[in-house]
Amino acid sequence: MIKFLNVWKVRPFALFVFAVLSIQGCRENNKINESQSIDVDQLAGLPSDLIPRPGPPILYAPPPVAPQLSNTGVWNAQPILISGATAYRSGEFIYQDWLFDDHGAAGTQDFTDPQGLGSTSYIFSRKAGTLTYPTNSAYANNAADLVELRVQALNNATAFRLTLNTMMEPELSAFTLAIGASDEPVDWPLGAGVRSPAAIFVTVHGNEAVAHKASDLTVIEADITVNVDRVRRQIEVRVPHGIWRPGRGKVRLAAGVGLWDLESGQYLQPGLIANDTTPGGAAISGAALYNVAFREEPMPQFTAKSGRTIVDAAAQALAEAHFWRERAQADALSSGDISAFYAVVDFAKLMDSITDESGVPLTGHMNRIFASRFEYGQGVDYARQCGIGTTGECDGPLIGQLQPYAIYVPRTPPSVEGYGLTLLLHALSANFNQYLGSRHAEQYGERGRGSIVITPAARGPDGFYIDMAEADVFEVWADVARHYKLDPEWVAMSGISMGGIGSFRLASRYPDLFARIAPVVATTPVEHLVASMHNVPVMMWVSALDELQSLPLTELTVQALDSAGLRYDVLSFPTWDHLSPSTYDYYPQATAFLGEHLVERNPARVRYIIDRSQDSPRAGVVAPSGAYWVSNIELNDEQLLTGEIDIVTEGLGVAQGEPTPLSSNVGVLSGGSHEPAPYVRRQRGWSSSTAIPPTDRVHIKARNVKYLQIDPTRAGLSCFPDIRIEADGPVEVGLIGC
């Protein structure tokens, strides 16, 4: 390795300054092992060709294998992974259910319910069903959560395969298939507590199955085979043609999942309060099912009744209870009549292996399912919630491998470059469906040439986008890149409350991933890192009467942006409180601000602050040691955990503008769910960039940094640039590719 030593004049604030320029190749980067199998389409939608790759390594990791989504035996079709959808694929009929919608009937509140009225877990995204699981850990608060149901026509039988989200002890769960039709709804057998049209019933519990005539519930003697795959959490049932032969006809099919009472040989009957062996939250109907297949579920609605304060907005969220996509299920189970939930299976299509995707939505609001690489058990563990103000490791209550997220796909097809991507992060005590059905998501999604909008579950209601909640954001992003054509240059981020806090945090840690951010009623949790957003303009919406993010706190964030010389645009609403912008649900200024702006890939000035205390190696969210064309920063004193660089290149022939004087004006926002809202708008931008003669020179300011690398091509430099450094110690500079 050849080294050139240059000693530079000490500036007044520097202890001493000198630089070591090393001509060498790139040191080891945080990148995926190239021997691994990586989906090319996924990488095409990500900035994967840049060195360093922006963002954490987990964003570029190949998809993990999920046993629940895999096939064996006679099953071959790929899963749909869009909840509520049906399809005919490879000779199979497939229904994909929602995750974590297993809340049963709307009945009596169980005061011990960890997600009930006495809990602060999901204040703004309440569930409709009140049925709770027995407290025994074998049920994992999730033992009757349907993931998928399949049907296939065999030579001498009809095969059904049901996949559960959780299967700790298979004999504790049960499901019933209601096959065929009848003139009137009939009672389901074995204490299911519901009724619907049917010709025969097949009930499966553990490795056993029993068939009943629907007309009189007499048992049909039959050799029904059951195979339980505990690894895949799948149960295959083969109903022989001897008791039911569908031929090439169209057959009505319904299905429901509950728990099994081993002692009484029927569905486990709910009581009022859950204990070790009994469910709680019973309804008058006595419905014992937690989850029913083949449903259409209403989306959340944002109207004049949506509330304006924390109290009335929470009350409205409880009254609507659409956020877990089980409102219709809860109401039907409460009545005991689930006749509305069924599919008509066309056996001619199955026998002819006809592909029919007409039941799979292509655009609009959806819930998708993906496989995470992290699994800390099965089901839901409310003891693992993070709590307000979490700063360290936290698994979150959604501990399993399969995770949901909300997505809005624009109505217009993608351009040649692909869809843009907008991260819209959910708030505290809300879930991933916070923006489902909202104008907020639609305005962001339909702007310009169309941007996909995603809201990750973040593993629970209170992860503050740290550790596993942060990892979930990037796993969802990677999953979207596997299924939709994305333009990696057009990425923005927004969010309300905790979602806005997360926007500040992630943009400060990974600035070269985002073009712009628009946090709403939020402050930055990493004020010391805001300078890293030098090339990421910020719009803030502030509520003057905010109960949680008070005006003095939001002003501290504005002052931090101002002191760092960043571009910002702040709308302050004097009549709004914390929940008002969410329920008002109208964001024209934020939509215009995010616009179609692209990520600044090669800015003339790079400011970046490393803070290793913010990293989570176990979750794969370690911020890169640099940003844009600066990489592999090494700290001089690792114990300090932080280091900072401010580097300007003259090689690009551009001088960035300077902050302009603060401007302000007033306006009125109208068009939302409530009355028009006045606001005061403050803006500080930059003067226009100016062209300068390209010069092979770079200026480096550094604090607690001993080494860094520059990509001379992206910075417009040669392999022998004039390097001028001001630092508090010796700095070695490597030039990539030289």
TrEMBL record:
<protein>
    <submittedName>
        <fullName>Pimeloyl-ACP methyl ester carboxylesterase</fullName>
    </submittedName>
</protein>
<keyword id="KW-0378">Hydrolase</keyword>
<dbReference type="InterPro" id="IPR029058">
    <property type="entry name" value="AB_hydrolase_fold"/>
</dbReference>
<dbReference type="GO" id="GO:0016787">
    <property type="term" value="F:hydrolase activity"/>
</dbReference>
<dbReference type="InterPro" id="IPR050955">
    <property type="entry name" value="Plant_Biomass_Hydrol_Est"/>
</dbReference>
<keyword id="KW-0732">Signal</keyword>
